[in-house]
Amino acid sequence: MSASAPPLPAASAAHRRTGMVSRAGPRRPPTAKRATDRALGYFLLVSLSLVSVAPLLWMLVTAVRPQDEVFGGSLIPTHFSGVGYSNAVSQVDIFRNFFNSVEVVSATVLLTLFTSTLGGYAFAKLRFRFKTTIYMVLVSTLMLPAATILIPLFIELKQFGLINSKPGLVLVYVATSTPFALMLMRGFFVRIPGELRESARVDGAREFLIFSRIMVPLARSGIASVAIMLFLFTWNEFLFAVTFIQNPPDATIQPAIFSLVGQYSTDWPTLCASLTISVVPIIVAYVVLQRHFVAGLTMGAVKG
């Protein structure tokens, strides 16, 4: 008859159970603590959102306030007035400057996307002499402040007769935006596997066909991200616009809005109404391209 094993002491069994629990991992925090942490996170997010949205709400409300209640009235207007929008349309002719900006921004975004997409693909996938040197020279121009190149650009545009013209302003925007857009597009093209290009070359496809039929569709999220950034930069740009176009009817919307700020007094409802009109295209562009913009920002973040 075989002897049975002696029973484990209670202390040893408890020790093994404790060891099993510790090897399984740390205990989950109590439900009350997790709920408190989540509530604190929501509170911080809501507070930051309110701080960010407060200037926009003040602008929207001031645009429909009477002039005498801008700073002396209640937080919520007792009655609403459309004088601000009426003055923005009739006195300032804000829509003329609005469509000037639409023309300049559209031409700038299209031309910059064309040059930066071609250049980004070349620097990412092609091999040619002095590629690294040329790329570093282009990227180094990003370190130049806009004020340092303002006078040379003015002299150059004046020699070519492009002062007070929208084509001259578009050329300046394209020249100053292309290095940044090219750097972004190169990053997007680098993340595309090179085996796709090699397979297409084996099948007899030419370089431009590979670029237009394979690479561009794969990088459309990145192109959308660059397009939104270019749109925001060009639409809100002020320094070049106020310097190179001094004729008010040909000015873009930002210098036109700035002209409403007086030295001694300002028509705040008209100013806020004009600002509200200028914000609408930015919101529409982001809503339309939001899906591609988020996909472009996360492109290449996950391997595999």
Describe the 3D structure.
By secondary structure, the chain is mostly helical. The protein has a domain at 101-264 and 279-297: MetI-like fold (Orthogonal Bundle). It has helices spanning 10-24, 31-62, 83-90, 94-125, 131-140, 150-159, 166-190, 194-202, 207-218, 220-236, 239-244, 253-258, 268-297. The radius of gyration is 30 Å and the shape is globular. The model is unreliable at 10-18 and 300-304 (pLDDT under 50).
Find the structural class using helix and strand composition.
mainly alpha
- Which fold name is given in CATH as the topology of the domain at 101-264 and 279-297? MetI-like fold
Q: Major sheet, described briefly?
A: none
Tally of helical segments = 13
Strand tally is: 0
* Large-scale geometry: globular
Architecture (CATH level 2) name of the domain at 101-264 and 279-297:
Orthogonal Bundle
- Radius of gyration using CA atoms only: 30 Å
Q: Work out the strand percent.
A: under 5%
Could you give me the name of the CATH homologous superfamily of the domain at 101-264 and 279-297? MetI-like
Low-confidence stretches: 10-18, 300-304
Helical content (DSSP H or I, runs of 4+): 55-70%
Separation of the first and last Cα atoms:
62 Å
- State the CATH class of the domain at 101-264 and 279-297: Mainly Alpha
Question: Average pLDDT across residues?
Answer: 83
List keywords for this structure.
single chain, 304 residues, mainly alpha, MetI-like fold, 13 helices, globular
Summary, kept brief:
The chain has 304 residues and is an all-alpha fold. The protein contains 13 helices and no strands.
